[in-house]
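tool_call: predict_structure(chain=1)
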Amino acid sequence: MNGNRQLYLKSSTFGASLGLVFGTVIGAITGALSASLNGILFCAIAGSILGILAGALTGALVVRMAGRTGGVSIGAYTGMFFGALFGGILGIFIPASFRASVAALDILILKVLTQGRFETAVLLSFLVSIVCTIVGAWVSGRNLLRQNTAS
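tool_result:
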């Protein structure tokens, strides 16, 4: 049991660090749509916070689903499913005032992506799913025990 607890802790910590890196990068890229430095910085910070949370949760979930015998695909699909679900739930709760401030920037693509709750939920679901897929694949590949192929 202690070894399993150590694996959960190691995978969650590693997942959080991966989530921080990739969440920041994807957040900054998404913020570049605003064509302003404030938008890039805000989205990078939001991406890093969401990346840490989603990465830690994905790391723990991958240990539960794949353990030491699952492969990279199990981790990737686990992360993909969890990221889409988690991002969609978070996207539903984005306040209307935030969506209105994004629409006030008067940039067509941002208006379309944040027009309503559904569009915002789909956008966040997609972005968090990208981060969680990367984290899930990396964590499960790292946790995989080598098979003894000497016969």
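agent: Residues 2-143 form one domain. Proceeding to next step.
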